[in-house]
Structures are given as C-alpha cells and as structure tokens.
Amino acid sequence: MSHYDLYAIGNALVDSEFEVSDALLKTMGVDKRHMTLIDTPRRAELLSHVQNITPRQTGGGSAGNTVVALAQLGGKAFYSCKVAHDDLGDFYVKDLQARGVDTNLNHTRASNGQTGSCMVLVTPDAERSMCTFLGVSAELDDGALHPHDIVKSKIYYMEGYLAASPTGLSAALKGRQIAKEAGVQLALTLSDVSMIQFCKAGLDTMLGDGVDYLFCNQEEAQVWCGTQDLNDVRSQLKKLAKMVCMTRGPEGSEIITDHQTWHVPADKVKAIDTNGAGDMFAGSFLYAIARGYSPEQAATLGNHTAAAVVSQHGNRLTLGQLSTIKAYALPPLK
Length: 334
Hints:
22% strand, alpha/beta, 9-stranded mixed beta sheet, UDP-N-acetylmuramoyl-L-alanine:D-glutamate ligase
C-alpha cells in the first residue's frame, strides 16, 4: 500500500512578491512573464529598485507549491529539497511542516550558504516575472532523496527547473530510476519557457522514454514543439507522456492522451496575480488522480483552484479555501 500520494523533488525558495509597474519592470531589465536565474550582485541591484515596496513573503518553489496544494487538499506528500541554516531556511521548514508536508529537511540541511529566494514581480495585468536566486538549492543532490519513501509513493514528481542544476538534475534522475523500478508513476512539469530555451537537454533526460503525467502551459507547449498550431502541439506532446495536462489560462485546460482529449473550461475570474497557478493546478490534479477520480474531474478541480489563486495576491490558498473548492468540485467517491 502506498504511503505517499506524491513524492516531489525541486528547489526550495522563499518568495518575496512585489507589485510593480511595467515601467519599473522595464527599468529593472527583467524579462516579463518568465523566470530568470540571478546571482548575488544582480539580486542586490534588483532589490535596490523595490526598497520602498513592502513584499509579501511566502514559502515557494514550483514543486513546493504543488506538494503544499496536494497536502492541503487532504493528500499525503513528501518533498526533497535543500535549504541553509538561516532565517529563510527556518521559515521554509516551518512552512512545510505547518502545511502537513513531510521532507528530508527534518534530517539534512546545508551548514553554509543562503537559502534560495525568488523575487516575484507582479504587474497590473496580473503577469508574474520571477528573478530566482538559488542559493544552496543550486547544490541540491541525491543526498536529499529518501529512496524508501519514493518506492512507497503513488507518483514521483520532478520540477523542470532542476534541469538548470547539474547536481539537481542528477538527483531528479536518480529518483526517477528508483521510482520507475518500483512501479511508481512518473510526472514532470516543464516549468518555464526559459528552461525549454536553455536547458532542453536536461528536460529531455527527465522525460527519458516517457512519463505518466506531463504538465505545461500553452506557451511552453508551443515553444517545446516549435509551432503555434495547437493540433500539431497536441500530436507531438502525446508522444511524450501517457497523459499531458496543458493549461491555457482563461481557456481552461486540456488533458491529452493517445485516445482522447478533454477540454475543461475555466472559471471566469478577474486575474490579479498568476504566480503559482500552474503549480496549484498540478497539485490539485494529482491529488484527484491519486484518489481515484477521472482525468476530467481532476482537471476540473485544478481549474477551480488555479482560478482561485489567480484571483488574489500570493501563490497559495488557505486550507479553508481549498476545502470549500474540493467540496463543490469533486463528487464523493463511491
């Protein structure tokens, strides 16, 4: 019997979210809507531009958001990541514990360095642009893996951002091998267009001979496939995974398999902040799949939770919000 619904590996990052104008974003020289890796001097430079703006601070990291969503919906999750012995690291560990996520951080933490952080710059059109300082997360390696917990999980989930880190990629692949040999289902998120443009070889190795679940948004899918034609995109993507989940913003989501495609409409909402939307969808979808719901039902839950998170500032929903959404989005299992 599986002990965890989801075992994930990814970057541990504390998010600091700033509301900025498009003009300020341009002045800062930040690539809008995408993720950019930054070093210490660049981080200091960017912070100087927003020193008069009070940020919202939350636990983050793409896969971290996904496991938290799944756990708050009532699932059981484990997260492998890396933080330092500093204030941000303490914040991150306590945040995972408070959300009910088990982690290797209870046993292993870096003795030196800084915990990773992400400046999330949100413009009035609700788009988020991310500047990520990986800190010790860049040193994530297979020492963060708990093989005995991987083999007791239903799904092993890899964050595509790890394709940018040689040790992180190696750890994700080692976990993938352990999971595959144990018959655990495999899942991957493409994470961001920047990963496809600069780290596609790493993503290819994560895909390997295929995964069970692949998550991406429409832009990522089109860049991956080298075409704007969605019919061509669907044809290409379904060769990569048994089930592809492509989110399309206000158009909802599509679940694509070899034999069928489900088009699941989105809630009509006013988007305020798109930070965490894809992560929330993935966590909700995998929660429902792990509990025996159909792909269409899982995508419906994912659409509802993603719509809720873009309707507010911040990358997380409260336990109460998720409980309410789950109650009306999912029928009781027979």
